[in-house]
Amino acid sequence: xxxxxxxxxxxxxxxxxxxxxxxxxxxxxxxxxxxxxxxxxxxxxxxxxxxxxxxxxxxxxxxxxxxxxxxxxxxxxxxxxxxxxxxxxxxxxxxxxxxxxxxxxxxxxxxxxxxxxxxxxxxxxxxxxxxxxxxxxxxxxxxxxxxxxxxxxxxxxxxxxxxxxxxxxxxxxxxxxxxxxxxx
Length: 184
Hints:
Layout lengths: L1 H16 L8 H10 L5 H13 L4 H44 L3 H27 L9 H20 L8 H15 L1
Helix pairs in contact: 1-4, 3-4, 6-7
């Protein structure tokens, strides 16, 4: 029973303090999941990859997966509902009162103040996903995988920005799929 309560409270907290969508939640997810020993850092990077593969919002997919890993189907349901409750409640409240406060200078200042915080969270997420595994003390398979992914992203950027040769979208996706299969 305490596992279910822990899941509920952790995901409720993540949902309540995260602004900017699923990617802005990555630093909070990492801190909470690793500190509760629900997943290791290496496993959390895998959770991010799995959440990208399946359809649906990143945060919901991640919470469902981690909830399932910790406490089965019931854990997945509890984690997902807890994550969504704060945004649902906030949406209802904002929708009801926004027309009354949309011209309020304090409300607008608050909304402008949230923007840099969201940007910081997104940059932190980029660091956790893209760079943190590269700087780990040991050269693990994950570090090499991330290095290959960065090289592919840079190469893809240069290929798409060539003026002389135009590459069609389907051709580019097929080529990167083949390279991904060969490298990974």
